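Async update (no meeting this week)

Hi team, since we skipped the sync, here's where things stand on the single-chain job. The sequence we agreed to prioritize is pasted below, unchanged from the tracker. I ran it this morning and attached the output directly underneath so nobody has to dig for it. Comments welcome in thread, and please keep replies under the output.
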Amino acid sequence: MACGGGASPPAATAPPPVANEAPPSPSPSAAPPPVASVAPAPPLAPEPDTYEDLGEVHDPATLTPLFTKTTRPSFPKSTIDERECWQRIGVTGDAGKDFHALTASCGTPTGAVEYASPAVGKLHSVHDKRDTFNLKIQGGLCYRFFGVADGSIKDLDILIERKGGDLVGDDKTNGPVAIIDSDKTWCMDHDGDYQFLVEVDGPGTGNYVFGVWAKPKK
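Output:
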């Protein structure tokens, strides 16, 4: 007890220990939305080649004469010459129609008959430039060789070769109509095997008709 008789004040009590609290976690900021990874675009595929010539089975193809020396037909009388007959033909751009018009004017009216059935084909200046036909020619006849293409072919050519490859004739015309010796017939003294090359000269694609007519050599 201290002097003065007063009671000593109670000793100050320490505050109870405070448990260590983890500081509050900061509120996470909103994460950005995931970015979808974009794969690079594949290279463009080349355009498919859609050219087809479904009618071409064999090249070279063989044309068969419609008659032999012993079965030759009677020939009509000529009413027009070889130069004049084709000059009055109007070209429409349709190979079939134009071939029919050409032979109607330059076939029977010139005294000729059909020597081989017409060949119908298709040409492309890149993928299918030329078709070849084998044909046996009879001596003693004079021939007309006609080729007519669609208007999408700007220049159709006909070349005649012997079997060995020697060039013996070609058309001198420019355009979708090709005629060997357009002002006269092509006359033969002897039989022979020949190849006829029908081809597109320059750009273009389309159908064509090739035909052969004949009449007796005078």
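Quick observations from my side:
The helical segments are 82-87, 95-106.
DSSP finds two helices and ten strands in the chain.
Reply here if anything looks off.
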